[in-house]
Amino acid sequence: MNSLDIHKLLLRESYKIGPASSLKQLSKFGLIGILNTILGYGLFVIFLNWTNYFGALVFSHIIAVTHSYLWNKFWTFKSSRNPLKEFIKFNSVYFLVFVVNAITLFLLVDVFNLDPRVGQLFALPIITIISFAGHKYWSFK
After folding, report:
1. Total domain count for the chain?
2. Residue 3's pLDDT is what?
3. Domain extent at residue 76
4. Does the residue 95 lie in any domain?
5. Prediction pTM value
6. Is the dihedral of CA 126, 130, 132, 133 positive or negative?
7. How many C-beta atoms surround the C-beta of residue 74 within 10 A?
């Protein structure tokens, strides 16, 4: 799929959903995202007391992904499709998010010597964009 195909797909989907519906979904996704970010980041900081930044990322990621899936499935996207299939797709998106997050943290912490708490704050905008696009156009499609 080239960039023209992706553009056509995005255009077609935006007409299907409608701008008001998309804005409402984006607002709900944003609210869940804020709450989930607070939860995930808070757990990350707490888990740093017992493990290194990668271990803290793994544990906080598992809890935050489960929280996010439940809220986004039933509230943001109101999906009634096969929950197992959606959960697998949802986790596939979050696996990509996790990999990008882990690489970003490695670079910021081990290469640029930032504190892991600060590094994670810098990673948040990047992973938020990947997450929304992946869930809107793939997980709950």
Report:
1. 1
2. 46
3. 23-139
4. yes
5. 0.71
6. positive
7. 12
